Structure formats: structure tokens, C-alpha cells
Amino acid sequence: MASSLHVSGVKTPYPAIPKRVSSLRPVWSHQRLNFSVAVAPVSCRAQTLRVRCEAGKVDVLERHTECQGSEEISNELTCVMKFGGSSVASAERMREVADLILSFPEERPVIVLSAMGKATNKLLMAGEKAVSCGVSNVSDLEELDFVKDLHLRTVDELGVERSTISKHLFELEQLLNGIAMMKELTPRTRDYLVSFGECMSTRIFAAYLNKIGVKARQYDAFDIGFITTDEFTNADILEATYPAVAKRLHGDWINDPAIPIVTGFLGKGWRTCAVTTLGRGGSDLTATTIGKALGLGEIQVWKDVDGVLTCDPNIYQHAEPVPYLTFDEAAELAYFGAQVLHPQSMRPAREGDIPVRVKNSYNPKAPGTLITRARDMSQAVLTSIVLKRNVTMLDIVSTRMLGQFGFLAKVFSIFEDLGISVDVVATSEVSISLTLDPSKLWSRELIQQELDHVVEELEKIAVVNLLQHRSIISLIGNVQRSSLILEKAFHVLHTNGVNVQMISQGASKVNISLIVNDSEAEQCVRALHSAFFESDISELVSGPKSGNGLI
Ligand SMILES: Nc1ncnc2c1ncn2[C@@H]1O[C@H](COP(=O)(O)OP(=O)(O)O)[C@@H](O)[C@H]1O
Ligand SMILES: N[C@@H](CC(=O)OP(=O)(O)O)C(=O)O
Questions:
Q1: What Pfam families does this protein map onto (predicted)?
Q2: Which atom of ligand 1 is the closest one to the Cα of 281?
């Protein structure tokens, strides 16, 4: 049976009235209903509404915007929510993400989106193929078809206008024609090419929110102050970004509140003014940068896993979520190869001291992982095991006598000159073992030419042994317990017949790195996981035992 209600004093940071009672938070008083409305931010004024409530649905009959004495609410944006490609892979997923956002009526979020599903990979592949397929064959490229079909199907299913993205699809094809004509795909063009993914996903999502009555505004990061180095495909965010982004997003919000929907992953090179990208998975960095710029209360990164896990679930399916991490642990984990977070993404969060929550958009009830400056480490031993494959290792032995000074400096100056960064290092006075950071982040491989050049330069001062196809296994955890970790780890590796070729404990005190052969690495991770996370090591944690050297 339909009933008519007077609803007053509504604290509504949102523009529209939701269609479902489940998205309201009702509080009865004097036969009036006060509630916060779970839709998009647009007006911070209290509103008086007359609604009809029937079978879980609310219809607005009348609306007045003057205040009715409800408490004041803050006008500020509160948090940033980033949704990765897997979270916005289809129209259905976009709908679910919209519902998810609306299920947090107390938040006034900035939304950061990645490209839909596999769009980035497909765009890259289309670019590679366009180099050699010939202009007349571009329109038949299977990857272009995939991208077109995915985006057009999504707009159709969401009921938004095709014109939302038709200009981008047209320009994308033009760009691929250009690549085919030039027979060349430079890093600069590659960045421009992949930017279409984020530019389209955000436009579609913003249009959908607006269609369901939630006021949203789309932003291209390169237009709102994301200023980066001109290092195409792996650009760094410059300091000027923070004030510029804050000014733009905050200014627009104050003037005309609407949920900001920002492209992840993209920036603008400060010299070239061309579109740059922040390295694969760079939308996490976009989110933490916005969090710091606006001084928001929390940064949420929504993925397809229940948080940061004890190891890569693709290597070992029994990996468990890690409830708490410090920024240092998360940064180390990301840097040493855990795909779940972008390697640089913790920097802005740590600088702004803003908590980061990693959540699962497919399972929002799961608590996820909370990353903060500090956490209780009293019971912590190992937090997570990370594997970085296909790493190159160099053994460099000085040709000079013992006691020689300046050897390390000379070696590292060669790497600096060649622009190659080093991951893990172990040294003695006359020898250095080190692993090289795969500088080509897009393929995660150093190219042979670069390697030959490094070896040639180093051989002027040392005997060099180049070892390829190695893996770094990083044990992230409480290095105050390094002896315990090492004892257990070496026992496991010995039992599995694995020889560790190099070991390093970084100054960060959260990471012990072990180098093994690629072919043995996954088996090592599984065995280490069983030993540390699936057996009881609590008696070892409780304190040093006399005579056994633990802890
Ligand atoms: N330690 C780990 N914890 C969680 N996920 C991990 C870990 N290592 C690798 N992964 C992989 O990272 C994926 C999530 O990261 P990513 O694909 O970048 O998410 P999104 O695209 O949603 O931002 C997971 O699906 C998982 O396969
Ligand atoms: N779309 C980009 C950027 C990104 O952050 O993606 P995701 O959030 O899906 O990892 C990529 O695939 O690298």
C-alpha cells in the first residue's frame, strides 16, 4: 500500500534522490524522516522533500531546498576511490561500481578509473600491429575491433549516448592509420595511443552516473594539472602537480559540486606538453597523488582481490589477505614486483600520511588491507612473499688488488651514466653482485644491446659475469626478526634443494631479498608460503630461546 511522508532536514551532499530506500539512512523524529541521501554530491544545503514510499522504493513528490534546521555538513571532498581495469571491465561492472560508490553516503569521493578490462593491452597490441600491417588493413585489426566493440557495447548497455565516445573511437582509428603510415610507434605515440582507454572509460562512467541522476564531471588528468617528466611510458609526477590538481578539483567542487571522475595513469609532460603515462598500473599513483593533493581522509584502491595477499595468487592459490601493512612494507612489496600496487604509488600517501585501503570490488564486504605509517609489529614475522622474475644479475670482481678505494663508486657511476637502476646489491671490498632493474617497464626486460653495453663498460675495471633468468624472492616483513626469517627460509630452500645465489637485507628493514634461478622460483614461493603462513611459528615468535640463537 502506498504511503505519503513528509521528509525534512535532509542532509544531502548529493544531487538526486535515490530510487531505493536501501541507499537512504533514515532517522525518525516527530513523524518526519531525516536522512542522508546516497547519490552524487551536488548541493550541501538541507532539503525538504515530500516522498512516497512503497515496497522499498521512494518517489519524490516535491522538493524544497531551504534549510530546515538540520546540522551543518562539511562541504569538502572526503576520499579518493580508484577502480582498476578489472573493476570496470563491462557495463555490468560499471553498474556495480556505481552502486558501490553510492553505498557510501557519508563519502564525497573523487573517483579514479583505469581503462576497461584489457583495453590497455589491446591498444598496445593494435599499435604494434599497425606498424607493419599497412594503412589499408588498420580497420581490420582484431584489437581495434575489440576496443570499439567493448566500448560501444558498454555505452549501449548502460543506455548512454554513443556520442560520449564516438569522437575518441574515430581519433583512435586515425591515430592507428598514422602509425601504419609512418611505420613507427614511438614511446610518445604509444602513450597517446593507450590514453584512449582511460579517456573513454571515464567518459562512459561519468555519463552513466549523470544518466541515473548522480551529478558527475569527467576530467582528463593531463588537463587538470598532472604534470610529469617527459619520460614517455614511465613518467614521474612533478611537485607542481599537487597544487594544480588541488586548485582545479577543489575549485570546481566548490563552484558546482559534481563527483569528479578522473582518468588514472595519464599525465602531461612538462616540456613536450604531450600525454604521458605513469607506467603500467599507474592509476594507483594517480589516486594517491590526488589524495595527497587534496589532503583527503583516505585513499581506496578497489581491485579484484581481497586486498594485498601473502603472495601472488597466480603462483599460489592459498594466498591470504594481509590485514595491515605499513607504507614501507607496501612500497617494498610493490617495488619488488607485487602487481597489486604501482611501485611509486605509496610515495604520495606516505608524504601526506593518508591511509590507503586496498579493497575488492567483487567482494566489498571483505575487510581488505589497510596501509598506514605504523602498525603493531609485536607479532609480525613475515607479511608477504614477492617474486620478480626474469631479472639479470651481474657478478663484478675488481681486477685490482685488495684495499683499493673508489671501486664501488666507479661501478655505480657506470650505471648512472647508462641510466640503468639497480635493485639488489651485495658487496665486498673488491666484488659486487647486483641485479638490474628492468628499465623497460613495458616489457619488464632489459634489452640485450643495453646489457652488452653495461658489460663492455664494466670490463674496463673488472671481471664481469652476466647471469640471466634469475628471480628475486623478497621476504617482506619484520626484519627485527631477520634471523628467524632467514633460518626458516634457508631450511625450506635447503629441503627443496635450492641454492641461493645472493642475499641482501635492505636498509628499509622490511625486506630480505634472495636470488634464485627463474626455473626454481615459483616452487620456492609455494614452499616458503607453506612454511611461514600455513604452519604454526608462534612458539618461535614468543622470544629468544637460550642457546639456539633465535631472534
Ligand atoms: N601480493 C599480491 N596481492 C594481491 N594481488 C596480487 C599480488 N601479487 C600479484 N597480484 C595480482 O594483482 C592483481 C591486482 O592488481 P591489478 O591487476 O593491477 O588490479 P587493478 O587492475 O584492479 O588495479 C590481482 O588480480 C593479482 O592477480
Ligand atoms: N590501464 C593502465 C593503468 C592502470 O592502472 O591499470 P590497472 O588499474 O587496471 O592496473 C594499465 O593497464 O596499466
A1: AA_kinase, ACT_9
A2: 18
